Each structure stands twice: as structure tokens, then as C-alpha cells.
């Protein structure tokens, strides 16, 4: 753009401002200001920029006019101010209208495409972030799967140890229950005979105190043997055992007792009584040998 292109609009502007057609200039200025104000009424930034341009044009025009004349008098200054006000008003209205047109073109031609590009860029960023998050989650899952596979032998060993402990505890519990059952069966067999000397409450108290699940199986077995021996002693106090002169008498008694026990229907109870019978028979035979030897 050459100086000639800039000078031509300036000359037109100066001719318009310095024209003697004051009513026309004032009317044109009023129309442009009102129209521009209506257009940029909701755009405070455009309103501000228009005022700045108008003030600048006013100051520039008054300064230029004074410079052009050289030594203006008071009348010239008044005229320059009035003409500057007309020029400022024209620039104010035109700038508001022009800024509104430029803003409209910017929104239509640039702002919307830029907004679309910005949204597209945000969508791409979001998709990229989601993709990275998916990759990170997949990596974490992959590491967890690899660690799970590496820990498989440890889990298997832990499970094996747990199974061993569970079986051992089950066997220990079974030993406790069998020991208590043996005492229970023996007591039931002689409850009528020894209920005065060893009542049920005492029996239950002994079981609870010395043969509970908190005790080890060995301790319960030992206490079971002690309790059974105690019951036999009470039975012998109430009903002394038969005295045998010969081993044949003892054997006949043992066979008779064994036959009676075999008639029972409870196999577990039967095994316990047979074991007790054999123990008692062993004691009787031992005593007979001692007497014979004596």
C-alpha cells in the first residue's frame, strides 16, 4: 500500500470534516453513532476500542490543523475543536460498525473453524489419553498375570501345607472325640453302679476341664486312660471283680463277656468294650500268675 492510497481517504475525510455543510455533517455523525452504538451495544470491548480511536482522531486532527496554520487564533481553535468533534464522531460510528463487521466475519470465517479444530484436537487428545490409559491398564494386568504364574508354586506349596495341617487337625480332633467317646461309653455301662460315688456332674466336669479341644490329642488320650481307670476303680469298689482260681476260669469268664459284647449293635461301642475287656482280662491273668508264683 503506497502513500497515495493512504492519502486519498485522509483527504476525503478532511474535506468532509471541513465542509461547510454543518447540518448534513451533524446528521450523518448522529446516524453513524446511533447505528454503531446499536450494533456494539452488547460488545463492551468494541465500544471501548471505538472510543479510543475517536479520541485519537480528535487529538490528531486538532494538532494537525494547528500545525498546518502555524499560529491559530481563538476562533481557529474553536473551529478546529468543532471539526475535530465531527471527525471523532464520524470515526466513532464508522469504527463501531467496522469492528462489528470484522467481528462477524471473524466468527463466521475463522472462529467457528478454529473452534471445530480445537474440539477436534481435544477429541484426539482425549482418545490418545484413553488409549494410553488402556495400554497402562493392560500392562498392569499383564504384570499381575505374570506374577500370578510366578507365584503358582508358592501357592501350591501353601495349599499343600494347609491341607496337611487340616488333615492333622482333623486326625487330632478325631483322637480327642474317640477318647471322650471311650470314657462316655464306659461310664454309661456302669452309671447305675457308680452314680453315688462318681455322679454324672463330676464326669462332665472332668471331661470339660481336662479333655477339651484346647488340649493336645496326647494329653486327651492320657486323661482318657486315667478317667477310665478311675471308673473301673469305682466299679470295683461297688462290685468287686470275681476271683478266679485257675486260668481256665478266667478264660471262661472272658469268653462269656466277649459273647455278650458281640451281641451289641453299635460297632464302635463294641470295639471300645472289647478293648476294655481285654485290658481287664490281662490284669486278671497277671494277678493269677503273681498268686501262682507266690
Shape: rod-shaped
Mean pLDDT level: 80
User: Major beta sheet, specifics?
Assistant: none
Whole-Å distance between the termini?
151 Å
Individual helix count: 10
The strand count comes to 0
Helical percentage: over 70%
Runs in which pLDDT lies below 50 for 5 or more consecutive residues are none
Radius of gyration: 60 Å
Q: Which class of secondary structure composition applies to the elements?
A: mainly alpha
- β-strand amount: under 5%
What does this structure look like?
The chain is built from ten helices and no strands. With 294 residues, the chain is mainly alpha-helical. Among the domains are: 7-111, no CATH class; 244-288. The mean pLDDT is 80.
Amino acid at each position: 500500500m503506497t502513500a497515495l492510497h493512504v492519502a486519498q481517504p485522509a483527504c476525503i475525510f478532511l474535506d468532509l470534516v471541513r465542509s461547510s455543510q454543518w447540518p448534513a455533517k451533524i446528521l450523518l455523525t448522529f446516524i453513524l453513532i446511533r447505528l454503531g452504538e446499536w450494533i456494539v451495544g452488547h460488545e463492551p470491548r468494541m465500544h471501548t476500542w471505538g472510543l479510543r480511536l475517536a479520541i485519537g482522531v480528535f487529538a490528531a486532527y486538532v494538532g494537525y490543523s494547528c500545525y498546518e496554520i502555524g499560529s491559530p487564533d481563538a476562533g481557529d481553535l474553536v473551529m478546529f475543536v468543532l471539526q475535530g468533534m465531527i471527525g471523532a464522531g464520524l470515526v466513532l460510528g464508522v469504527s463501531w460498525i467496522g469492528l462489528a463487521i470484522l467481528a462477524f466475519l471473524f466468527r463466521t470465517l475463522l472462529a467457528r473453524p478454529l473452534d471445530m479444530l480445537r474440539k477436534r484436537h481435544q477429541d484426539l487428545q482425549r482418545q490418545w489419553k484413553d488409549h494410553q490409559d488402556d495400554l497402562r491398564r493392560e500392562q498392569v494386568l499383564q504384570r499381575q498375570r505374570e506374577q500370578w504364574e510366578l507365584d503358582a508354586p508358592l501357592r501350591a506349596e501353601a495349599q499343600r501345607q494347609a491341607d496337611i495341617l487340616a488333615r492333622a487337625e482333623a486326625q487330632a480332633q478325631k483322637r480327642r472325640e474317640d477318647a471322650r467317646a471311650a470314657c462316655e461309653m464306659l461310664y454309661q455301662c456302669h452309671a447305675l453302679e457308680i452314680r453315688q460315688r462318681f455322679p454324672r456332674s463330676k464326669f462332665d466336669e472332668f471331661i470339660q476341664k481336662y479333655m477339651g479341644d484346647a488340649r493336645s490329642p496326647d494329653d486327651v488320650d492320657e486323661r482318657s486312660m486315667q478317667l477310665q481307670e478311675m471308673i473301673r476303680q469305682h466299679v470295683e469298689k461297688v462290685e468287686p471283680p470275681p476271683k478266679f482260681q485257675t486260668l481256665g476260669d478266667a478264660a471262661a469268664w472272658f469268653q462269656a463277656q466277649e459273647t455278650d459284647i458281640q451281641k451289641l449293635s453299635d460297632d464302635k461301642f463294641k470295639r471300645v468294650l472289647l478293648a476294655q475287656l481285654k485290658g481287664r482280662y490281662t490284669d486278671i491273668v497277671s494277678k493269677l500268675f503273681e498268686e501262682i508264683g507266690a
